[in-house]
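HUMAN: Would you supply a protein with fold tokens?

ASSISTANT:
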Amino acid sequence: MPPAVRRGVDAPSGTVCGVSESDRLRLSRTPLAALIATLVVLPVTHVARAAAVPAPTPAALGPFRAATHEALAQRYAVSRAGILAAEETASAHGDQWRATMLHAMADPTRRFLSFDGRDGGRAMEVFGDLATADRIAVVVPGADTNLDKYGILRGSSLRLSQALGQRSAVIAWLGYHTPSTVSAEALTTGRADAAVPHLRAFVRQLRAARPHARVTLLCHSYGGVVCARAASDMDVADIVLVSSAGTTFDNVAALRTKATVWAGRGSGDWIAYVPHARLRLPFATIGFGADPLSPRFGARLFEAGDGGHSDYLKAGSPSLRSIVAIVAGQAPAQVGRDA
């Protein structure tokens, strides 16, 4: 297993301790054994630090129902005030890194539908003109995405927005407490299940605000588990599983969605080495099951090139071209099912 895999899969914060001898014997019979053992013992200090930075309670915002320029401007202003208040709190706490990140986020040219700086942070940033967008991509990130690492999500969303061009919008949806990449929670559905009602509610509000727009969910790594488990109650055109280790479902039909389900993985992505299995243990069910790229899963496969785990929205990449085509409702370059 390559070094990147030994660092763990996309996952939640926290670790599973106290594994019994019988559990270890059961784990030894599956390829998940080495991965779980690693996740149990490795620390998650960065995630703990990110969640520990204090922030004030944000002003209450009602459901997002209107996408006029005036209504959006009001939401953006309220969110900006919340970011500035969080910056002041972080600075007083002595966390200059967080304060610097928040200062950049508070730039008047940036547009946040919502913001909450507590517990690692939640944020929904808009790229493009949402009030006039006919095509909307909602980017659902994977593990280890928080305010301290928000720049990665922002950069990817910005590049997608630029590639899509006019009459489109991209929403970076950091709407849940993501797991730590290095933790046993990386292999369980706990954080995904907690995120499901929030993603479903947001998509319903977005559909009400822009009823004629084509909406696509772009779900990266652990974000694919979130999207899959929410799929049965979301009105979207496409669900794009990017760098997904699995969804907990055996096939596309089990998602019970009318959306077209796509899957892609770069040849240089370490996620391919994560075992595709589900194992019931006394303390949790570990793993996400069928490979989304396998024939039996039944997703449509798009060309993802040779990029690594965080390269899917890299400028000029085959994966970015494929994703742009999907969001636009066009047929992307596809690959065979032996990928």
